[in-house]
Design a protein that fits this description.
By secondary structure, the protein is mainly alpha-helical. Helix 1 packs across helix 16, helix 1 crosses helix 18 and helix 9 crosses helix 10. Keywords: Acyltransferase, Membrane, Transferase, Transmembrane, Transmembrane helix. It comes from Rubripirellula reticaptiva.
Amino acid sequence: MLDALRGFLALYVLLGHSRWLLWAGHSSWINVKHSWWQDVLAYSSAAFRYGHEAVWVFFALSGFFIHLRFASKLKLETNSNSLDVKRYFRRRTLRILPPYAMALFATLLLDVFGRHFFESLYLASTEDAFINRLFAFKTYDKESVFSAFLLLPSSTGKDFGTNGPLWSIAYEVVYYIAYPCWLIVRRINWIVAFGVIPLGILLLVPVAEMLLPAFSYLGFASQVLLKYPVWLAGAGLAELVMRFGSKTALRLAVGCTALSSAFYLVTRLPTASALVVSCLCASVIALACASSPRINAVGITTFFRYMGIRSYSIYIFHFPLLSLISAYLFAEFGGRPQSGWMAFWGSVAAVVYGCTCYEFCERWFLHRNCRISPPELRGKP
């Protein structure tokens, strides 16, 4: 069922980007008269504004799946609860690197084509201030290219071409590298691993940003640290599910979320408490989807599971294609259209494109237990 959640999240992020790139902004929309149902659709589409927060749920899911194997060993109390570091990094590399490399190459091809024929958007020189701000840091200078080749895209504050969503891959790479070290701490003391480390990060990083102005300029480092507790929350979920079952873990997560939300509303502390609430909410969403038989029984789950298997490709490939379509619209019509149909069909094209890229690349590097063909998904909740 968690595959269905990943599929939903990937589509959610994609639809949000389509809304940005292929549909007129609010300031332009309100200056033109529309029918009531168009207004309803337009204002309803504001629900797709939280793509950045949706990626945090991806982080929680990543921590869950990465730590699940070790959590199952702890439950069985086996002696073989050490991590084969070499095998771990080989599996992570084969899983992440080939599609990522193909995404960089595809981004370059689409951007070269777009810059040649519809250059205004790529040069951030359209008449739309929002789009110009969005594309001002999408470049191919030495900083963006070098960081992308180090598997740390956007870590310098500049994206690799138009593929801004790759920023989350940099975070994941750091968390993957940190996992063996964190696991040593977990084997020694679970309180330090799940309590002292995340709370220390959430409390000390904001203090460091206030007391040490130089640290605030290290935006990538501070943001990676601040989102690490979200990843660890997913790892904690894996152990809760293994020890107590998904329903008990869900109740615990709901209770913690309620308490932390109340604390946040009362204190209004900045970043730290907001992140606590966000990571716990991500945990609740994941557990609810995993434990509810009613949700599992819904037929649409099959579709989202299908998308979930392809979610990585959909996520890392879609934005350059949407950017190319948007560049064409600016070159031919001077801006984003008032109608939402272009955003709809652009989303369909981006999903088909991502799934096609999956078939050509990612599916050949999945672990064996993840290689599920479309016919095998039919009829399964």
